[in-house]
Hints:
By secondary structure, the chain is of the alpha+beta class. It has 2 helices and 11 strands, in the order H-E-E-E-E-E-E-E-H-E-E-E-E. Helix content is 17%, strand content 40%. It has an 8-stranded antiparallel beta barrel with strand order 1-3-4-5-6-9-10-11. The termini are far apart.
Amino acid sequence: MVLSIRNVPVCILIAWLIIFQTFFGGCDRNKNDSPPIQDNLSGTWSLIWILDEDVLYSYETANTKVNLDFNFEDNTYAGTTNHNEFFGDFEKSENRLVLTRFITTEVAETDYGQIFYAAINESFNSENDSHDMTYTIASDKLYITSGTTSLHFIKEEF
Length: 158
């Protein structure tokens, strides 16, 4: 007796293909072969606007051209404003962002930069000597909330 595909209904062939793929397709795969999931906080983020309570501050409406970038890599960060630099260490879990060290020059800052520094200072937790904030990432946008202030960044692609 010889089996012929011509006499087998298509739905049975599809069912056998699904069963075969389910049980035998990929048994040799090692889960560790897949590339590691990249931390979506990593990279350079540019501040595009600040919402402080009910007042919106935008780099587009600032008196001078505003540059304010935040770069997160591993457990360190660095950033620049128009006149200053800042850097330090951070920890994160779920939606919590904790700047465990915040070092900056903060000299002769623009109005927009001063609002940014005020938001960071608002998050200071004297019990553990850190800056505690929450964050959310949606696509290429980063939202950091510090007390009543929300910082909105866009991811820079180089």
